[in-house]
Amino acid sequence: MQYDQLIQPDNGQPAIPIQLIHKAGFETWLAAQPDTVRAAVRAQKFEAAVNDTAVLMVEKYGEWSVVAGVADEANLGIWSLAKLAETLPEGNYRLLDADAGDAMLGWMLGQYRYQEYLSDPKVTGPRVLLVKEPGRIAGAALQAMATALVRDMVNCPAGDMGPNALENETKRIGKVHKAEVSITGGEALETGYPLIHAVGKAAMREHAPRLIELNWGDDRHPRVAIVGKGITFDSGGLDIKSASGMRIMKKDMGGAAHALALAELIMAAHLPVRLHMLIAAAENSISGNALRPGDVIKSRKGITVEIDNTDAEGRLVLADAMTKAVEDKAVLIIDFATLTGAARTALGPDLPAMFSNQDDVAEGLLGAAKAVNDPLWRMPLWAAYSEMLDSDIADTANSGGSFAGAVTAALFLQKFVPDDVQWVHLDTYAWRPTSKPGRPKGGEALGLRAVFRYLTDTYPVR
């Protein structure tokens, strides 16, 4: 979808008017309307609640207008117009007495559909919003496209979104933005990135594991690494998941989808950074050579890891990828991962758990998240819990047990990042279990816009 075509400058072209009304002002507005409008409003049971809508016919035959309930007609939130964009018929629209502002993004995403596997997809024409802020259209469209990329990749069935598909998508984006893409697989992966290889070796024949890297930008700029967990399907390995736990594990590459979308945002915005994106891609499968509980693997960094649970595989592949980012002198490493059920139990599906080894970075991210209404919640790197990762025979275990699972997963990753390197870990769900206006059930970008805003604030384009 061409999201930039869904918002266009208002040059006075014909359009259906939309009147936004806050519930507190509804009765005053209604009292000023003619009898025909009051009757139509009552017939449609419109009371100006958020997302309420009513269609009003005007005196001239065939013309009509829309009234819609919003939380604040003077300061629209991102999702204020999303329901309208989902439900209105094809055509041009303009707001009366209001600027779209942040709601441009919601208008665009309200028209997102994932219909790749429908034999008879629902085809609707575009709902175009005319605005008097044309300078904001490109930025909103860029973020809509990035969000749609995450959704599309996560929604795609695992049989069609394996490591090879992640590689192809990286190459596509790299070609568009003239970035360098390199792939490490086979024997080079086994010797150079043993944790990634160990996790993915059970699916070697059909879905071989690999490290996917994209480099872009000027070497004189600060080196920023974006790392994504790319487990394209997670059976749990020999510590196999239940059927219900495995059902949506096509989404376990959601971290990789976020990393790719963020990389494209950075390149499209021409941020003054030396971007290094790394995706650790593998399928956590089961076969005769699968990783076993009790195995000990020596990581790329040299830290030996005892496998306490084969379903704690995401942190393993991230560890080797993060080690490479450190070797290449990143000053900031941000990893995205659908890492733990513990984070979802603590914070639910909408709120990514954020960990950082630098307080100023964490505070900057929280501020950016609030500014763009893409919430994050900081969780502690509680050092005392490191003992939960102790192993009798190796430098560390990969799982700390059932207590504080999101914290111990982050503490495991911290072992692979020096204290003087800024590091952020986002444990995100990448999935929406129920639908909301502009946010359908399925794959979702959570934390993407917050991180991009932080990066644009930290590395502004001059």
UniProtKB/TrEMBL annotation:
A GO CC term assigned to this protein in UniProt: cytoplasm
Species whose genome carries this gene: Sphingorhabdus profundilacus
Homology family: Belongs to the peptidase M17 family.
GO biological process, one term: proteolysis
The entry's keywords: Aminopeptidase, Hydrolase, Manganese, Protease
Entry keyword annotation includes Manganese: yes
This protein's name: Leucyl aminopeptidase family protein
Segments forming domain Cytosol aminopeptidase: 309-316
A family per Pfam: Peptidase_M17_N_1
Domain of life: Bacteria
A single MF term (Gene Ontology): metalloaminopeptidase activity
